[in-house]
Amino acid sequence: MALLQAVNVGKTYTAGQVVKPVLQGVDLEVREGEIVALLGRSGGGKSTLLRILAGLIPPDEGEVRFKGQRVEGPMEGMAMVFQSFALFPWLTVLENVALGLEARGLPKAERERRAREAIALVGLEGFENALPKELSGGMRQRVGFARALVVEPEILFMDEPFSALDPLTAEGLREDLLDLWQAGRTSTRGILLVTHNMEEAVALADRALVLQGSPARVGREIPIPLPHPRDPGDARFRSLVEAIYETLTQREEVERRLEEEALRLPQASVEALLGLAEAIARLGGRADLPLLAEEEGLEVDDLFPLLEALELLGFARVEHGDVELTAAGLALGQADLQRQKALFAEHLLRHVPLMARLHRVLLERGRLPEKRVLEWLEARMPPTEARHVLGVLREWGRFAGLLAYEERGRFFHLPEPEETP
After folding, report:
1. pTM, 2 dp
2. C-alpha to C-alpha distances, 378 to 32, 216, 245, 263, 316, nearest whole angstrom
3. Average pLDDT value for the chain
4. What structural domains does the chain harbor?
């Protein structure tokens, strides 16, 4: 039975004259008795969709139904656990957990009884009178779970609830949540988890839904039929992780994304880009993405922008869950710093029209106020993205020696010729 349904959901954001569709034609459902993981690239609409499903923001198109009723705002039977702990620092653990019950008008004795039960349920018995500053990160997130569970939700929304924790703490909290779920010790009948961690999705969920495209929609559903407890070293576990990686790096998807967002540049520092190219070169020029992420200690949201940047610049090709350096990419990964700068400059001018345009203007005029570049970008994208793209252009261009930047006057100019020894 469908507990939650989204039908043809769409959402568009407007900033000034810039209109950006974020979601379009999203269909999904969460059935009773299942955990569903929602994955996608950073900035791909996962959190926006979760907030629409939870009734926190309205869709522009389509509708969401919870137990058959149209969702037009937060409803009884729903609760959310956020990435940030979002606790009131001046309230005790007990007071933070009981706050939602107070808003519902429950008597004080009833609020305290249920709050203590929820605190004990998440393993924090004895910390009722502690303040958030006295707790570790894992304990603060347990308070977040208790605050959500105390209202006895039938569906629990979780927005990357483990990502702010260290790996060991996150693993322990995931296991405890799964124990509560399997033992039926809560009223929750369905969980929708937004995550960027593929291993986490395969460890917890019954199905994984992958958002693709721009605007995003559910591009693929991946069943996860493994019995619990699940072993990350098991071949079936690794195969499912590979399937998610492959879905998120499909050739058509990447090419469409780069084409649709020609003006948008990945959040990738030069240092991290070169480090990844060098790591892949050491592995012979080709690497399995899950293993590469694990060996380099990179989260998915850190790895994917770097891969997009390498592809955009013509240094790599990603498909079927693997990354392979091109001949130029292999040269980049094996070269000394001066050769890396020359290769980077060559590919930057060839593959990034924004940089080629900016460099051409500098050749003609000698200098250009940063404000003019920002205004040009803001006319074509939201202000926050425009500032991000400007920052990437500045860093990439300076490393490649294609431009220089005057901090005090805030203008771009051509680099001074190096003195001849």
Report:
1. 0.71
2. 45, 22, 33, 11, 30
3. 87
4. 2-248 (3.40.50.300), 270-413 (1.10.10)
